[in-house]
Amino acid sequence: MSDGSVQQRLSQPAVPLLKEQRVGEILAAVPERKHWRYRPRRVGMVWRSRTFRVAAVFTVLAICGLAILALVRDQTGTQGFLVGLGLAVLPVPLLLAAFRWLDRVDPGPWRNVLFAFAWGAFAAALVAILANSFATRWIATTIADPSNADTLGATVIAPVVEESAKAAAVLLIFLFRRREFNGIVDGVVIAGVTASGFAFTENILYLGNAFGEDQQIGNSGVVSVTAATFFVRAVMSPFAHPLFTVLTGIGFGLAAACARRRRIRRTVLPLLGLVLAMGMHSLWNGSGVLSPYGFYAVYAVFMVPVFGLVTWLAIWSRRRELRTLAAELPAYAAAGWLSPEEPLALSSMRARGLARDTARRQYAVAARGSRYTPYGPGWAPGSMPGSTPGAIAGSTPGVMPGAVPGPSAQAAQAKAAVQAAEAHGKAAARAVAEYESFATSLAALRLQARRGTTGPDFAERELELLHHLWQRREVAAPALTYAAQATGLLRPHRLPPLPYAQQFTPHTQYGAYGNGPTQAQAHAQPPGPGPGAGYNPYLRPQQPPR
Fold it and tell me: What is the mean pLDDT of residues 364-381?
């Protein structure tokens, strides 16, 4: 060992030894926080801020949107851009309405839908235009026959680039919004909305160029290139791009339903869906160069059957979500958290809609002081806890007994009473809708637990959902029970069997909420509180029965 290393070792200060008897002495020597010479560095704290993430995503999408609109306007001209924009908007409401209808059982948040559409319309479209243009120029300068550059770019490069760019939105939601991505329906909806946004921007480009070509030739009307392009892209094949990307979404949906230990399957299924989407997109783009009638042959023999198959799969998955409610929620009914009729009503879209409408009518009618009984004989608004005697007796709210208000005051009071009744009815309907949403999430959570796809926070998430259900129970339970009876779901052959071998014991670990009511207590409960002064049926906390 050299002398320098020995000298360096000897010059190093000694490290203070940690002994139990010296811990108090060491900690007492630390100054107060305001006198600290060293402060912890918050490395990465900015990225953990939700506000920063939202602002970053919004900024990126806004920049992509401005760039793609500038590129499209540069290629089509201002007039062509406006014409293309006006025509490209027409199929968008149809596409979005179809995917939202498919997602009605357990609808995802609107922020996911807006992000997916914006990603497809701005980010994915920008990547596609830049990458396709670069690839076409590269092919034209490197291959022997530059005339085939456009064909090769459309059939080989474009499907890979476009489907990968659209799949990125599905991947982001799959990774960062995992609790809102539970199965095939969620994958189909996110992928379809992303592709709808991409097709919207692409239609602006194609329709704008077609209009510019018509301006040069002098065509107009139904024989114009613009009309033909609109018919092919917006009438015959508005679901073309969504159909391609939906295959990727199905792959992610199947991966979401797999257990966490199935890592290979969770990786292979999305990649397989992406490859199928690329292949189908390539076949669609190359159909026009196969033969003069290649487009119609591929459309009739391949596209229409695949579209029908994917549509059937999506609707079957939607019905499967409803069957999950009928299979999983009876366990909570046996434990007393739900009434026996609620799982049946929650597993029927017709009954769920009827329950919302019934709650709206019930609370609106009770607030107006009418004796109409929307739940049938045996139910009286006067027996509802929280209802005001004056309202039931027919007196006008806000008027002293014996007072005779003038005509203008009577009209104002009548209008105010109607508005208040409508507000109570809407609040009750919203409470039932929220109850249905939480119950659907509870059934999905229990299904994930049986599949092994939930995390270690299952008990906390189940407790939170039961809390939300309990807060809205007095409003939603009578409406759902009435809907189950009115729609004929209580027939004996419609009662689903419990998917458990043994009886589900009531919960005992929920602390302040106590055990849920027994089935006999659930039947004996009144339909719910009436809309008294300042009543908010979906925010007022309810105490469990003792």
Answer: 56
Place of tokens 């409408």: 357
Distance (Å, whole) CA 124 – CA 67: 12
- DSSP character string of 364-378: HHHHHT----TT-TT
Mean pLDDT over each residue of the chain, to the nearest integer: 77
Amino acid type, 146: P
Please give the distance of CA 228 from its chain centroid, rounded to a whole number. Answer: 35
The answer to whether 438 and 468 are in contact (CB under 8 A) is yes
Contact 198, 166 (CB under 8 A): yes
pLDDT at residue 542 greater than cutoff 60: no
Question: Is the CA virtual torsion 495, 501, 503, 508 positive or negative?
Answer: negative
Interatomic CA distance for residues 509 and 502, integer angstroms: 19
d(CA 213, CA 429): 53
Q: What is the DSSP string of 258-310?
A: S-TT-HHHHHHHHHHHHHHHHHHHHHHHHHHHH-TTHHHHHIIIIIHHHHHHH
If you write DSSP's letter for every residue of 192-204 in order, what string do you get?
A: HHHHHHHHHHHHH
Per-residue pLDDT, averaged over 111-115, amounts to 92
Encoded tokens for 290: 């196969």
Distance, CA of 478 to CA of 528 (rounded, Å): 7
Whole-angstrom distance, CA of residue 16 vs CA of residue 418: 78
If pLDDT is split at 50, 70 and 90, which confidence band does 501 have? very low
- How many other CB atoms are found less than 10 A from the CB of residue 227? 17
- The rounded distance, in Å, linking the Cα atoms of 433 and 106 is 11
How distant is the alpha carbon of residue 449 from its chain centre?
Answer: 21
Task: Give the N- to C-terminal CA distance of the chain in Å, as an integer.
Answer: 81
Kindly write down the DSSP assignment for every residue of 32-91, as one continuous string.
PGGG-S-----TTTTTT-HHHHHHHHHHHHHHHHHHHHHHHHHHHHHHHHHHHHHHHTTH
**CA 542, chain centre distance (Å):** 29
d(CA 247, CA 197): 16
3-state secondary structure of 178: helix
Which range among 129-133, 141-145, 461-465 shows the weakest confidence by mean pLDDT?
A: 141-145
Q: Work out the pLDDT band at 162, boundaries 50, 70, 90.
A: very high
Is residue 98 over pLDDT 60?
A: yes
Name, in order, each residue with C-beta under 8 angstroms of 188's C-beta and a sequence gap of 6 or more.
Answer: 99, 102, 246, 249, 250, 253, 310, 314, 317
The first and second tokens of residue 268, run together, are 């292979």
> Cα 379–384–385 angle (5° rounding)?
160
